Amino acid sequence: MNLFRLVPGYTDHVYEAGKEPLLLMLIAFLVAFLLTRAYTRIARVRGWGSTHVGDVHMHHVVVGILLMTAAGVIEFGFSPSEVFSEWLAIAFGVGAALTLDEFAMVFHLDDVYWSPEGRSSVDAVVTAAVLLALGLVATAPFGAERGKEPAAAFWLVVGVNVILVLVTFLKGKLKLALAGVVLPGLALIGAVRLAKPGSWWGRRFYDAAGEGRRGRKHRRAVAREAKRRERWSGRQSGLYDLVGGAPSRPSPREASDGPDLDGP
Protein backbone atom coordinates (compact mmCIF):
# COMPACT_ATOMS: atom_id res chain seq x y z
CA MET A 1 0.00 0.00 0.00
CA ASN A 2 3.03 2.26 0.47
CA LEU A 3 1.21 3.96 3.35
CA PHE A 4 4.01 6.27 4.46
CA ARG A 5 5.31 7.25 1.03
CA LEU A 6 5.68 10.86 2.15
CA VAL A 7 8.37 9.85 4.68
CA PRO A 8 11.79 10.32 3.05
CA GLY A 9 13.39 6.99 2.16
CA TYR A 10 10.31 4.96 3.06
CA THR A 11 9.51 3.86 -0.48
CA ASP A 12 13.07 2.71 -1.22
CA HIS A 13 14.03 1.15 2.10
CA VAL A 14 10.71 -0.21 3.36
CA TYR A 15 8.10 -0.54 0.63
CA GLU A 16 10.35 -1.57 -2.27
CA ALA A 17 12.31 -3.84 0.11
CA GLY A 18 9.08 -5.70 0.90
CA LYS A 19 9.13 -4.76 4.58
CA GLU A 20 5.88 -2.83 4.82
CA PRO A 21 3.96 -5.90 6.12
CA LEU A 22 6.60 -6.31 8.83
CA LEU A 23 6.28 -2.64 9.79
CA LEU A 24 2.49 -2.90 9.95
CA MET A 25 2.81 -6.07 12.03
CA LEU A 26 5.10 -4.27 14.48
CA ILE A 27 2.76 -1.27 14.77
CA ALA A 28 -0.28 -3.50 15.24
CA PHE A 29 1.62 -5.60 17.78
CA LEU A 30 2.59 -2.61 19.92
CA VAL A 31 -0.81 -0.88 19.71
CA ALA A 32 -2.69 -4.10 20.52
CA PHE A 33 -0.44 -4.85 23.50
CA LEU A 34 -0.78 -1.33 24.93
CA LEU A 35 -4.57 -1.34 24.50
CA THR A 36 -4.84 -4.83 26.03
CA ARG A 37 -2.76 -3.87 29.06
CA ALA A 38 -4.70 -0.63 29.44
CA TYR A 39 -7.97 -2.56 29.48
CA THR A 40 -6.79 -5.24 31.92
CA ARG A 41 -5.39 -2.62 34.30
CA ILE A 42 -8.63 -0.64 34.25
CA ALA A 43 -10.61 -3.87 34.67
CA ARG A 44 -8.51 -4.78 37.71
CA VAL A 45 -9.17 -1.42 39.35
CA ARG A 46 -12.89 -1.35 38.55
CA GLY A 47 -13.50 -5.02 39.21
CA TRP A 48 -14.88 -5.75 35.75
CA GLY A 49 -15.66 -9.37 34.98
CA SER A 50 -13.98 -11.43 32.27
CA THR A 51 -15.44 -12.99 29.15
CA HIS A 52 -16.77 -16.51 29.59
CA VAL A 53 -17.76 -19.22 27.13
CA GLY A 54 -20.28 -21.20 29.10
CA ASP A 55 -18.64 -21.75 32.47
CA VAL A 56 -15.10 -21.42 31.09
CA HIS A 57 -13.09 -18.19 31.44
CA MET A 58 -12.00 -17.00 27.99
CA HIS A 59 -8.39 -15.81 28.16
CA HIS A 60 -7.35 -13.50 25.34
CA VAL A 61 -4.44 -15.81 24.50
CA VAL A 62 -7.10 -18.03 22.86
CA VAL A 63 -8.22 -15.18 20.59
CA GLY A 64 -4.57 -14.44 19.79
CA ILE A 65 -3.84 -18.02 18.77
CA LEU A 66 -6.93 -18.13 16.55
CA LEU A 67 -5.99 -14.83 14.88
CA MET A 68 -2.41 -15.93 14.19
CA THR A 69 -3.55 -19.32 12.88
CA ALA A 70 -6.16 -17.81 10.56
CA ALA A 71 -3.75 -15.17 9.25
CA GLY A 72 -1.04 -17.77 8.63
CA VAL A 73 -3.35 -20.23 6.85
CA ILE A 74 -4.76 -17.54 4.55
CA GLU A 75 -1.33 -16.03 3.80
CA PHE A 76 0.45 -19.29 3.03
CA GLY A 77 -2.49 -21.20 1.61
CA PHE A 78 -4.13 -18.71 -0.73
CA SER A 79 -1.39 -16.24 -1.81
CA PRO A 80 -3.58 -13.15 -1.32
CA SER A 81 -3.03 -9.79 -2.97
CA GLU A 82 -0.53 -7.27 -1.63
CA VAL A 83 -3.15 -5.17 0.16
CA PHE A 84 -4.82 -8.22 1.73
CA SER A 85 -1.43 -9.56 2.83
CA GLU A 86 -0.81 -6.36 4.73
CA TRP A 87 -4.17 -6.69 6.50
CA LEU A 88 -3.16 -10.24 7.39
CA ALA A 89 0.12 -8.88 8.80
CA ILE A 90 -1.89 -6.52 11.00
CA ALA A 91 -4.12 -9.40 12.16
CA PHE A 92 -1.07 -11.52 12.92
CA GLY A 93 0.51 -8.68 14.92
CA VAL A 94 -2.67 -8.24 16.98
CA GLY A 95 -2.84 -12.01 17.57
CA ALA A 96 0.79 -12.14 18.64
CA ALA A 97 0.24 -9.29 21.11
CA LEU A 98 -2.79 -11.01 22.66
CA THR A 99 -0.88 -14.27 22.90
CA LEU A 100 2.35 -12.90 24.36
CA ASP A 101 0.46 -10.69 26.79
CA GLU A 102 -0.44 -13.94 28.57
CA PHE A 103 2.85 -15.69 27.85
CA ALA A 104 3.57 -16.11 31.57
CA MET A 105 0.28 -17.93 32.11
CA VAL A 106 1.03 -20.36 29.28
CA PHE A 107 4.62 -20.85 30.46
CA HIS A 108 3.71 -21.49 34.10
CA LEU A 109 0.35 -23.17 33.34
CA ASP A 110 -1.09 -21.06 36.14
CA ASP A 111 -2.92 -17.75 36.53
CA VAL A 112 0.14 -15.61 37.25
CA TYR A 113 -0.98 -12.58 35.20
CA TRP A 114 -0.85 -10.22 38.20
CA SER A 115 1.87 -12.12 40.09
CA PRO A 116 5.60 -11.37 39.95
CA GLU A 117 5.98 -14.21 37.42
CA GLY A 118 3.63 -12.27 35.16
CA ARG A 119 6.43 -9.86 34.35
CA SER A 120 7.81 -12.51 31.99
CA SER A 121 4.89 -11.67 29.66
CA VAL A 122 6.20 -8.11 29.35
CA ASP A 123 9.66 -9.58 28.85
CA ALA A 124 8.34 -11.73 25.99
CA VAL A 125 6.58 -8.74 24.40
CA VAL A 126 9.72 -6.59 24.59
CA THR A 127 11.80 -9.40 23.08
CA ALA A 128 9.34 -9.88 20.21
CA ALA A 129 9.15 -6.13 19.54
CA VAL A 130 12.95 -5.86 19.44
CA LEU A 131 13.15 -8.81 17.05
CA LEU A 132 10.55 -7.27 14.73
CA ALA A 133 12.33 -3.92 14.83
CA LEU A 134 15.65 -5.56 14.04
CA GLY A 135 14.00 -7.31 11.11
CA LEU A 136 13.18 -3.89 9.68
CA VAL A 137 16.75 -2.62 9.79
CA ALA A 138 18.53 -5.84 8.82
CA THR A 139 18.79 -7.10 5.27
CA ALA A 140 18.98 -10.86 5.91
CA PRO A 141 19.07 -13.31 8.83
CA PHE A 142 22.57 -13.97 10.17
CA GLY A 143 23.84 -11.08 8.03
CA ALA A 144 24.23 -13.35 5.01
CA GLU A 145 23.01 -12.07 1.67
CA ARG A 146 23.79 -14.26 -1.29
CA GLY A 147 25.97 -12.29 -3.66
CA LYS A 148 28.80 -13.21 -5.97
CA GLU A 149 30.84 -15.06 -3.33
CA PRO A 150 31.27 -18.85 -3.69
CA ALA A 151 28.61 -21.07 -2.16
CA ALA A 152 31.15 -22.49 0.31
CA ALA A 153 32.00 -19.02 1.64
CA PHE A 154 28.31 -18.11 1.92
CA TRP A 155 27.41 -21.20 3.95
CA LEU A 156 30.55 -20.81 6.08
CA VAL A 157 29.40 -17.32 7.12
CA VAL A 158 25.89 -18.60 7.88
CA GLY A 159 27.26 -21.59 9.82
CA VAL A 160 29.59 -19.47 11.96
CA ASN A 161 26.78 -17.05 12.78
CA VAL A 162 24.43 -19.89 13.70
CA ILE A 163 27.06 -21.28 16.10
CA LEU A 164 27.57 -17.85 17.68
CA VAL A 165 23.81 -17.43 18.19
CA LEU A 166 23.57 -20.93 19.71
CA VAL A 167 26.47 -20.30 22.11
CA THR A 168 24.96 -16.97 23.15
CA PHE A 169 21.64 -18.69 23.83
CA LEU A 170 23.29 -21.47 25.86
CA LYS A 171 25.05 -18.81 27.92
CA GLY A 172 21.64 -17.55 29.04
CA LYS A 173 21.55 -14.40 26.91
CA LEU A 174 18.25 -14.87 25.06
CA LYS A 175 17.70 -11.28 23.91
CA LEU A 176 21.27 -11.00 22.65
CA ALA A 177 20.91 -14.32 20.81
CA LEU A 178 17.71 -13.18 19.10
CA ALA A 179 19.30 -9.87 18.14
CA GLY A 180 22.32 -11.78 16.86
CA VAL A 181 20.14 -13.56 14.30
CA VAL A 182 19.91 -10.33 12.30
CA LEU A 183 22.99 -8.52 13.66
CA PRO A 184 25.80 -11.11 13.90
CA GLY A 185 28.12 -8.75 15.77
CA LEU A 186 25.83 -8.92 18.80
CA ALA A 187 25.98 -12.72 18.80
CA LEU A 188 29.78 -12.53 18.74
CA ILE A 189 29.71 -10.29 21.84
CA GLY A 190 27.39 -12.70 23.62
CA ALA A 191 29.45 -15.74 22.65
CA VAL A 192 32.77 -14.42 23.97
CA ARG A 193 31.47 -12.97 27.25
CA LEU A 194 30.95 -14.90 30.47
CA ALA A 195 27.83 -17.03 30.72
CA LYS A 196 25.17 -16.46 33.34
CA PRO A 197 25.87 -18.81 36.27
CA GLY A 198 22.49 -20.55 36.03
CA SER A 199 22.64 -21.09 32.27
CA TRP A 200 23.35 -24.42 30.58
CA TRP A 201 26.84 -23.20 29.65
CA GLY A 202 27.55 -22.05 33.19
CA ARG A 203 26.44 -25.36 34.71
CA ARG A 204 28.40 -27.38 32.16
CA PHE A 205 31.68 -25.49 31.92
CA TYR A 206 32.00 -23.60 35.23
CA ASP A 207 32.75 -25.24 38.57
CA ALA A 208 31.17 -23.71 41.67
CA ALA A 209 33.38 -25.72 44.03
CA GLY A 210 36.57 -25.66 41.96
CA GLU A 211 39.73 -23.65 42.50
CA GLY A 212 41.09 -23.76 38.96
CA ARG A 213 40.18 -21.85 35.84
CA ARG A 214 36.60 -23.15 35.83
CA GLY A 215 36.14 -22.16 39.45
CA ARG A 216 37.45 -18.64 38.80
CA LYS A 217 35.07 -18.28 35.86
CA HIS A 218 32.16 -19.32 38.04
CA ARG A 219 33.01 -16.78 40.72
CA ARG A 220 33.44 -14.05 38.11
CA ALA A 221 30.11 -14.97 36.53
CA VAL A 222 28.33 -14.91 39.90
CA ALA A 223 29.88 -11.55 40.79
CA ARG A 224 28.99 -10.07 37.40
CA GLU A 225 25.40 -11.33 37.61
CA ALA A 226 25.01 -9.94 41.14
CA LYS A 227 26.36 -6.58 40.00
CA ARG A 228 24.03 -6.56 37.01
CA ARG A 229 21.01 -7.39 39.15
CA GLU A 230 21.92 -4.70 41.68
CA ARG A 231 22.22 -2.12 38.92
CA TRP A 232 19.33 -3.06 36.65
CA SER A 233 16.77 -5.30 38.38
CA GLY A 234 15.03 -2.48 40.23
CA ARG A 235 14.92 -0.29 37.13
CA GLN A 236 13.70 -3.16 34.96
CA SER A 237 10.96 -4.08 37.44
CA GLY A 238 9.90 -0.44 37.66
CA LEU A 239 9.73 -0.16 33.86
CA TYR A 240 7.78 -3.40 33.56
CA ASP A 241 5.37 -2.27 36.30
CA LEU A 242 4.87 1.00 34.42
CA VAL A 243 4.13 -0.81 31.16
CA GLY A 244 2.28 -3.87 32.41
CA GLY A 245 1.06 -2.92 35.87
CA ALA A 246 2.50 -3.80 39.27
CA PRO A 247 1.82 -7.30 40.64
CA SER A 248 -1.09 -7.48 43.09
CA ARG A 249 -1.04 -11.21 43.85
CA PRO A 250 1.62 -13.29 45.58
CA SER A 251 3.64 -15.78 43.62
CA PRO A 252 1.83 -19.15 43.46
CA ARG A 253 5.02 -20.70 44.80
CA GLU A 254 5.05 -18.38 47.81
CA ALA A 255 1.35 -19.01 48.41
CA SER A 256 1.88 -22.76 48.39
CA ASP A 257 4.75 -22.39 50.90
CA GLY A 258 2.65 -20.30 53.28
CA PRO A 259 1.03 -21.50 56.53
CA ASP A 260 -1.79 -24.02 56.38
CA LEU A 261 -4.79 -21.94 57.44
CA ASP A 262 -7.26 -24.80 57.14
CA GLY A 263 -5.73 -26.82 59.94
CA PRO A 264 -5.51 -30.58 60.07
Concise description?
The protein is built from twelve helices and two strands, in the order ααββαααααααααα.
Verbal overview:
The chain is an all-alpha fold. The protein has a domain at 1-137. Helix content is 67%, strand content 2%. It has helices spanning 10-15, 20-46, 60-78, 82-100, 103-108, 119-137, 151-170, 174-182, 184-192, 200-205, 213-244, 252-256, and strands at 52-53, 56-57. The protein has a two-stranded antiparallel ribbon. A hairpin with a 2-residue loop joins strand 1 and strand 2 (56-57). Helix 2 (20-46) runs antiparallel to helix 6. The longest helix is centred in the last third of the chain and has 32 residues, at 213-244. It is flat, with a radius of gyration of 22 Å. Residues 259-264 have low confidence and may be disordered.
Helix content: 55-70%
Q: Evaluate the radius of gyration.
A: 22 Å
Summarize the helix and strand pattern as letters: HHEEHHHHHHHHHH
Globally, the shape reads flat
Strand order, largest beta sheet: 1-2
| Total number of strands | 2
Kindly, what is the distance between the CA atoms of the first and last residues, rounded to a whole number of angstroms? 68 Å
Binned strand content: under 5%
Any low-confidence stretches, pLDDT <50, length ≥5?
A: 259-264
Count of individual helical segments: 12
Secondary-structure-based class equals mainly alpha
Mean pLDDT: 85
Q: Biggest β-sheet, characterized? A: 2 strands, antiparallel
